[in-house]
Amino acid sequence: MRKLDIFGVPIDPVTMTEALEILSGFLRESKLHIVATPNAEIVMMAQKDREYMEILNNTDLNVPDGSGIVFASKVFKKPLKERVAGFDLMMEFIKNISSKNVKIYLLGAKPEIVEQARINLRKLYPAIKIVGTHDGYFTENEEEKIIDEINSSGAEVLFVALGAPKQEKWIYKNRGKLKVKIAMGVGGSFDVIAGKAKRAPYLYRKLGLEWLYRLIQEPWRYKRMMALPKFAFKVLFYRKKAKKQGG
User: Fold this and answer.
1) Is the CB of residue 163 less than 8 Å from the CB of residue 37?
2) What is the extent of the structural domain holding 187?
């Protein structure tokens, strides 16, 4: 499938079903595959961060996470089939592999959060194989020990919840050392699984207003949320400029 370019960030035009099939295929290969979930905020981060842009151009799968990405695809006359939210992809993938003896490692969040996420996932899927966890509060000097622990556990899937862009940068920096088959940045997903944070209600997600719900719940995030209107204006300006040029 031809990737969609959103201001230099390649997006795979996949549905949830197609993304899950791709992840299953990654498990059959004996090498590391990096999965990212770009949304409007991440695309805007990459405009100012060359290292992050390079990483997003060297992942194995970039799913269209966020209504802003879907909006941009429609404005660019290359509409994506659907939004594939990173949290939903993670949970659907866990559901698929929980009974298949696929080993999972959870890295990130606070110690009590990652532990509660492990407990809650085991309640949801009793057969799940979570072979290790580690919180996200570690120093650079501790990285080698953590990587050794991940590799020694035999983990095939690594979910990294360090927040963007830190999680993707950490995965990419250590791509030559990690022996897992899939490493995926999952942001604040452990907080949701642990019950510490709530996802936006279905109606908000359906209407593409998840950002608004998060802003209401966490008003201190307003500075980060400013990336969303900036992204929308950038999309519309780009389209207007393209029309003038006959695009």
Assistant:
1) no
2) 10-242
